[in-house]
Amino acid sequence: MITTSVFDLFKIGPGPSSSHTIGPMKAAYDFVQRVSNLPADQLAAATELHIHLYGSLSATGKGHGTDRAIVAGLLGWQPETTNPDALLNLLRDPTEVYPVQAGHKVFPVNAASIHFERVRYDSPYANTMVLTLTDGSTRIASEEYYSIGGGFIIRKGQPDESANPVSVPYPYSTMNELKAHLTASGLPLSEVLLANEIAVSRLSRKEVNARIDGLIEAMHKAVRRGLRHKGVLPGNIRLRRKAPALYQQARSLAQSADSFLIFLNAYCLAASEENAAGGIVVTAPTSGASGVIPGLTYLAKHHFHYDKTTLREGLLAAAAIGFLVKHNASISGAEMGCMGEIGTASAMGAAFLTQCAGHGIGAIEAAAEIGIEHHLGMTCDPIGGYVQIPCIERNAMGAVKAYNAYLLASSGSPGMQKISLDAVIKVMKATGRDMSTKYKETSEAGLALSATEC
After folding, report:
1. 452: pLDDT confidence band, cut at 50, 70 and 90?
2. Which of 24, 111, 289, 322 has the CA that lies 20 to 30 A from 148?
């Protein structure tokens, strides 16, 4: 049963990767809180703190800033309140030592404390990190964490939440079950989703609406910053930002038939470039895909002039699709390839547009299905481990596909769609399982091998 909050799916935090930045930051923060509660004699005996990264966290963690995020988490920083400039300054000097306070004890941590392991590790998830306290030779405390995409983490051995699920008025695990609730209740999709959100987050309707408005504004702030900021993005690729020039081009061609797409591309690139620079973005559903829905919502507000209520209802529809993919497949690039990130974002964006335009659940489902279907098999092969090539342009392409999926789904009878959303999510999961690990955020294949040309 899906009991994920809208505010867990859409998180505010620093780029460039929710699974490699936000997730590890949260895990490191959690570890410090746990070891702070160790018996005094154990904590007194500990002298060293080590972090071991495996899988995609090891393969592309440097380019994603995983090491900086871990230090930030150990220092007590939280994603939603992190200063991105301060985060980028961490570990600039690899010899600098950071004091990590755990209870009454302070542990010295520097770049040498973080180990990018290249050995295969027996783990149920691709992104695994192990944090350990030792006295130099003996392990005193250790925790294993999995970063499963979108900033979500799991700690090994934590209680299974499905054993004691949150009670929601409209429980569902599939689109078919969600549609059954709509039919039985006679309520619109937004009301069903809002009722569940109130139960999960324990907020009032007014509070939920205000927080959704805040999410949309945070997305639009990223777009606006990206439209202003020029120059070169961090990292060895030396990739120049394109969004400001593209935006000016769109304005100069305002009467052209192409201007609509150029504006959309500019908005998506703007947010995605901010993410690549380590700026504050909203996971939608991941940081790597944080340009698709911000670009579409910015377009919807400033070009279609939708009001706040319509935008909220659209974002709830998008969230429903994100929930279904996360629950029944994965939104992690390290597990699904880029179809798990951009594919899901495109499907969510298609649902957003279809809901905002006033279409029913049949068209919303069809739009989301089309969005995923035409991202099946998309690899995650970032050059140099940076969320830049092909990630930034891929956000714009995902938004354009979302818009076309909306057009296709709303132009005829949704019943003519032969493939259901539930079916395509199953195919997505199977495809991710069959895909070679090299194409899952490891920078070991595909476009990543073009690094020498950059």
Report:
1. low
2. 111
Taking CA atoms, 8 is separated from 149, 152, 373, in Å, by 11, 8, 25
Residue 84: burial class (beta carbons within 10 Å; 0-12, 13-18, 19+)? middle
Bond from prior residue into 285 cis (ω within 30 degrees of 0): yes
Count of C-beta atoms within a 10 Å radius of residue 112: 11
Mean pLDDT of 337-353: 98
User: Which phi and psi angles does 185 have, rounded to 5°?
Assistant: -85, -25
Topology at the third CATH level for domain 16-161: 60s Ribosomal Protein L30; Chain: A; (3.30.1330)
Q: Whole-prediction pTM value?
A: 0.93
**What is the sign of the dihedral through the CA atoms of 407, 410, 411 and 412?**
positive
Distances (CA, A) of 60 to 120, 145, 382, 408: 15, 17, 9, 37
CB 26 within 8 A of CB 145: no
Preceding peptide of 390 cis, ω within 30°: yes
pLDDT tens digits for range 252-281: 998 888 899 999 999 999 999 999 999 999
Strand-pair category, 105-109 with 153-155: unpaired
- The domain limits of the chain are 16-161, 175-453
